[in-house]
Design a protein that fits this description.
13 helices, Tyrosyl-Transfer RNA Synthetase, 2 domains, mainly alpha, globular, ATP-binding, single chain, nucleotide-binding, binds tryptophanyl-5'AMP, aminoacyl-trna synthetase
Length: 330
């Protein structure tokens, strides 16, 4: 059977890239009957400096958004990574199989570490912890954005190395990639880059908590090009095409339909359509999340329930793996 695993880092507020690229896809997999494990990756967040209080707040924000988006805490398992210590324990076993050379050459590591004076080892171990997140549940399918593909390659390499060293223990996890462009939503300020939680300009991304006015403003300011027609050509017209993608994801259309309907509109006029579609898709989600966010005790109860279920599953894998590795189980 398929086992879907995915994670969200609480390093900033969730944006539409995270939503269309990961969260909403998890909800749809849940609805089609898949076994979904979704967690908030607070241990990963610690690879860069965090304010503890803010981190805890963001974990609750994300829990509220995940529930508002449709994650059902009975059908799926929703939890915080650090509440399941097996992630970190399996990370250690895998770290002993990973090589410095491989990790030091990953583009995301090189990029992030380039600007740091002192590089924490945890930053280098980031993909190893991510592999542990998936393997500790014997995850088979991982719905993620395109930015996570290299991390998944590390995970499948670790599965192979583990098998050679100790014997078969994990299925090879596969990225689940969509065909609707949702895995690569671009920055609204620089469509050559992905939309990201960490880009300094807040107008580069639409947050799930943005008001209709803010959404409309950010779309109006989105960088396009000097051609007024609306076309869908992601390679050559990344800016407009990103707007078409967002429009389609929000309004459940195909790019051809959206472009046909936009015939005769300038990109400036089309932006109003896009903003309208995004507002319509996000407003109910935002309202549900705000209600849930006002009930922190309920959110904590949901996370406790999820963690208890996740621990049972993680224990089962870890017991097996630890005995393969010769760790004494007393
Ligand atoms: P994070 O928190 O950066 O992003 C959460 C999810 O959103 C996707 N995503 C995007 N999708 C489309 N367009 C974008 N512009 C965009 N930006 C982000 C990400 O690909 C991700 O799926 N390392 C992960 C968290 C993680 C994880 C895991 C994921 C930790 N352990 C195990 C899967 C399995 C991350 O930083 O996601």
């Amino acid at each position: 059977p398929r086992r879907v695993v995915s994670g969200l880092q609480p390093t900033g507020e969730l944006h539409v890239g995270n939503y269309f690229g990961a969260l909403r896809r998890c909800v749809r997999l849940q609805q089609q009957g898949d076994d979904v494990m979704l967690f908030i990756a607070d241990l990963h967040a610690l690879t860069v400096r965090q304010d503890g209080q803010l981190l805890e707040e963001r974990v609750l924000d994300m829990t509220a958004l995940a529930l508002a988006a449709g994650i059902d805490p009975e059908r799926s398992v929703l939890f915080v990574q650090s509440a399941v210590p097996r992630h970190a324990e399996l990370c250690w076993l895998l770290a002993c199989l990973a090589t410095h050379a491989r990790l030091a050459h990953l583009p995301q590591y090189k990029e992030k570490s380039a600007t740091m004076k002192e590089v924490p080892i945890g930053l280098m171990l980031y993909p190893v912890l991510q592999a542990a997140d998936i393997l500790v549940y014997r995850g088979t399918h991982v719905p993620v954005g395109a930015d996570q593909l290299q991390h998944l390659q590390v995970a499948s390499q670790l599965v192979r190395t583990f098998r050679h060293r100790y014997g078969p223990a994990f299925p090879t996890p596969r990225p689940l990639l969509p065909d609707d462009g949702s895995d690569r939503i671009k920055s609204l300020r620089d469509p050559s880059k992905k939309m990201s939680k960490s880009e300094p300009d807040p107008k580069s991304r639409i947050l799930l908590t943005d008001s209709d006015e803010t959404i409309t403003l950010k779309i109006r300011k989105a960088v396009t090009d000097f051609t007024p027609e609306v076309t869908y050509e992601p390679e050559t017209r990344a800016g407009v095409s990103n707007l078409v993608t967002l429009h389609c994801l929000a309004a459940d259309k195909l790019p051809e339909e959206a472009v046909e309907e936009a015939a005769g509109l300038s990109t400036a006029q089309y932006k109003r359509e896009v903003a309208g579609a995004l507002c319509a898709a996000l407003a109910p989600l935002r309202a549900r999340a705000a209600e849930l966010r006002a009930r922190p005790a309920h959110l904590h109860a949901v996370l406790r329930h999820g963690a208890a279920r996740a621990r049972l599953r993680a224990d089962e894998t870890y017991e097996h793996v630890a005995s393969l590795a010769g760790l004494t189980r007393t």
